[in-house]
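REVIEWER CHECKLIST
Item 1: Sequence provided? yes
Item 2: Single chain? yes
Item 3: Sequence as submitted:
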Amino acid sequence: MAITRDEVAHLARLSRMSLSDAELDALAPQLDQILAAVARVTEVAAADIPPTSHAVPLTNVFRADVTRPSLSVDEALAAAPAAEDDRFRVPRILDPDE
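Item 4: Structure as written out by the authors:
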């Protein structure tokens, strides 16, 4: 199954990409090779091998979450340069119109 130049142009339009004629001509065989490689991977997968996410078994090494006493709001905000409504006040970094 060969990917045609027209199919690449169609994909470019769908992804709102502007490609030159030279790029369309170069990408068609490259995409064809990528799809062929993916098809080969599916041929290799055997039904008797269970799917895995890692080559070796993993176990969770993190400790369990435990609720512990922490700072009160007043203690946490005591060293803050600015606070407002029981929260840290920080400078705006994003334009509000965006």
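Item 5: Key structural point noted by reviewer: The mean pLDDT is 87.
Item 6: Recommendation: ____
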